[in-house]
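Quick one, probably user error.
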């Protein structure tokens, strides 16, 4: 395959990322109430969106997003995924310790809590839909900076 000459720079950031959950009430309880993310909008049983710093976390109901848009709706093509996804939230080591305590107290078992070879700590658990949720020190990817 021959690619055309690139005349624009690569994307500089991720604006939004999506996870899928069939039970949006449970997703709201986890991401909104437990994690404290700022909810931007909920559209019935289709989606709920949250602000995470300069990024938007989209939580879609997979049974709804595969439906084509209505004539009156926005022309967003059907999309979706099946099965668990993954999201990682940036946190300091002290914040990870605090999150660990809060999550366990709320009844969310921790799947893993370890330090990577570069010294970054990661904490893993599952949200109510089975998505893998990680809290990690940014130095995992960006060094000590």
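Nope, works fine. Designed sequence:
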């Amino acid at each position: 395959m021959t690619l055309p000459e690139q005349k624009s720079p690569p994307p500089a950031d991720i604006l939004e990322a999506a996870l899928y959950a069939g039970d949006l009430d449970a997703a709201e309880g986890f991401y909104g109430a437990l994690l404290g993310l700022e909810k931007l909008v909920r559209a019935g049983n289709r989606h709920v969106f949250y602000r995470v710093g300069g990024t938007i976390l989209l939580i879609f109901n997979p049974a709804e997003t595969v439906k084509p848009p209505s004539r009156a709706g926005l022309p967003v093509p059907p999309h979706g995924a099946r099965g668990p996804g993954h999201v990682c939230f940036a946190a300091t080591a002290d914040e990870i310790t605090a999150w660990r305590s809060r999550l366990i107290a709320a009844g969310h078992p921790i799947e893993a809590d370890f330090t990577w070879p570069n010294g970054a700590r990661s904490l893993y658990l599952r949200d109510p839909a089975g998505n893998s949720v990680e809290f990690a020190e940014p130095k995992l990817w960006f060094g000590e900076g």
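The beta strands are 16-20, 38-43, 47-52, 55-60, 86-90, 110-115, 121-126, 132-136.
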